Amino acid sequence: MSNVNELSDQEFAAEVLSANEPVLVDFWAPWCGPCRMIAPVVEELAAENQGSLKVAKINIDESPETASTYGVSSIPTIMLFKGGEVIDRFVGVQPKKRLQDAIDQAKA
What we know:
The chain is of the alpha/beta class. The protein has helices at residues 9-17, 33-48, 64-69, 96-107; strands at 4-7, 23-28, 54-59, 77-82, 85-91. It has a single domain, classed as Glutaredoxin, CATH 3.40.30. It is built from 4 helices and 5 strands.
């Protein structure tokens, strides 16, 4: 069972902006090669930070409003939210350690 929730535009505010813990959001699309490359890393981060971090994915083809609201022009784009605000943003495939370091800072 995956620790990553698939979100739609309608679920975004409740699941991400109102969350008590930091939320890592992966903006992706099924046709995006780099998105498929980073997906296992996102899954690992979700499993390893379970209980202290929420992890969600938004398919930009199915939920374009949220991507547009946050200025996502390239995918994968990974954003880290805390208290309803974007506190970190990564574009393209990232090393797992770089994402984990950002998560650790958000949890501190």
